Amino acid sequence: MSRKINFIVLSILVVFCAFTATGYQELSTQIDKADTAWMLVSSAFVLLMTPGLSFFYGGMINKKNVISTMLQSFVALGVISVLWVIIGFSLAFGESLGGIIGNPLTYLNFKNVGIEPNPDFAPTIPFLLYALFQLKFAIITPALITGSFAGRIRFRSYILFMVLFSLLIYSPLAHMTWHPEGLFRKWGVLDFAGGTVVHMSAGFAALAGAIYLGKRKIEIGEHANVPHVILGTGLLWFGWFGFNAGSALGVNGDAVIAFANTNIASATAMITWLFYERMLGRKMSAIGACIGAVVGLVAITPAAGFVNIGQSVLIGFIASIISNWMIHLQHKSGIDDTLDVFPSHGIGGIVGMLLTGILASKVGLIYGETTTFYAHLIALLITAIFTFGGSYILFKVVDILLRMRVRPDQEERGLDLSQHGEQLE
Fold first, then answer.
1. Which spans are transmembrane here (predicted)?
2. Which of 18, 22, 317, 352 is most buried, judged by most C-beta within 10 A?
3. Which helix (H) or strand (E) holds 146?
4. Which whole number is the average pLDDT over 300-322?
């Protein structure tokens, strides 16, 4: 029976969707065609980031776990898409319940999510397009977590964790940060494109997973394919323009500023990583260049539309050095975060969030304002406790229900064979 339950649940959800969905009304409100075109493109850009992440992670793991590691990212495209339509979007952006989470009935099965704009979220584009753009963020967040436990988690247990994380961790955090009535939003917390919602939540969940699952029996060994890591980084960098510039929700000055800041912060972080490594007597490696570039992308994300080009250079520089230092510190700590998700995404998100509170135009600490910075400190503390503690509990719950870690013999064979019956030639 346990082998059939996944298909049975999916069948029930398909029937529910088919018989409860509402049709689209004819568009009566004028939409901005340029904004709509840009947001369609941006949504596609952000979706491309998840396959890019697959290559990025898959190239860094050993050859026994390439397929499983890449699939853990790729499968989120399917699982989260269905979940988002049914209830995820409503939990994140539905009618606010205390500023913490949305009413699950507001947009259940995309009810009332049509081609009319919604002035509370994006007044110049169809509301359906806004919901789909937000979906891409919801997809990549649990995919980011997978790098921390690559090589030692059962696939179906991971899928259950992903579902629970999306509903109970991601959706409330997205609501608090981006909904007009959200708790953090009303405090004045600034997160232009997901430094808190995406990267900090994924980073702390990754740390919880690494601690809960414990060390691998088999060390990572040689990277399976460094060119794939470079390819993945390129796809991530490309997609990140939609991630950040798309979060302006239109063709406007904020989009241009975010686009420029995204590029220069990543470029600065990559160069900083290489030169810092060389200064310490280490090789200037391709893997290091790629990690540095991604750290820069992560750090600029919350600040992308709120800082100038010089400040984005500073953000990339600072984040690169701190994340580099944290990676080496974490290795000494004994925490087995396989692909260094927490030092890269968690720490990168924290640095970006704090520097946003310091540098944000007109409201940052350097402009003599303290409210935003203090709000960011409080939100950071709440986010850390909520995402780390909540994720740790979810790992424990899933472990009780399905057992999360593969057996030692399966880990020895590699997850490609033991979980999927496939292997690289």
1. 7-25, 37-58, 70-93, 127-146, 158-178, 190-213, 225-243, 255-276, 285-303, 309-327, 347-367, 373-395
2. 352
3. none
4. 98
Question: Range with the lowest mean pLDDT among 103-117, 174-188, 213-227, 248-262?
Answer: 213-227
Task: Lowest mean pLDDT of 6-20, 91-105, 177-191, name the range.
Answer: 6-20
Domain ranges in the chain are 32-404
In this predicted structure, the answer to whether residue 6 has a pLDDT above a threshold of 70 is: yes
Asked whether the CA dihedral 207, 209, 213, 215 is positive or negative, the reply is negative
Q: Which two tokens stand for residue 79?
A: 């699982």
Q: HSE on the CB side for 51, CA within 13 Å? A: 8
Rounded Cα gap, residues 303 and 360, in angstroms: 7
156 exposed, middle or buried (CB, 10 Å; 0-12, 13-18, 19+)?
middle
Q: Report the b/e string of 214-233 with b at 16+ CB within 10 A.
A: eebebebeebbbeebbbbbb
Extract the tokens encoding 117. 């704009």
Mean pLDDT of 12-21: 82
| Predicted local distance difference test score (pLDDT) of residue 27 | 66
**Which among 222, 172, 217 is positioned nearest to 60, based on CA atoms?**
222
**Class of 32-404 per CATH?**
mainly alpha
Q: Can you read off the two tokens belonging to residue 296?
A: 């820069």
CB proximity list for 39: less than 8 A, separation 6 or greater? 122, 125, 129, 130, 133, 246, 249, 250
Taking the whole predicted model, whether its pTM rises above 0.70 is answered as yes
| Alpha-carbon span 145 to 394, nearest angstrom | 13
The packing angle between helices 201-213 and 347-359, to 10°, is: 150
For residue range 352-405, list pLDDT tens digits in order.
Answer: 999 999 999 999 999 999 999 999 999 999 999 999 999 999 999 999 999 999
Amino acid at 273: W
Query: In sequence order, which residues have a C-beta less than 8 Å from that of residue 395 and are 6 or more positions away?
Result: 161, 208, 209, 212, 213, 404
DSSP state of 96: E
Helix/strand/coil (H/E/C) assignment for every residue in 328-345: HHHHHHCCCCCCCHHHHH
The candidate with the shortest Cα–Cα distance to 115, out of 23, 188, 230, 17, is 23
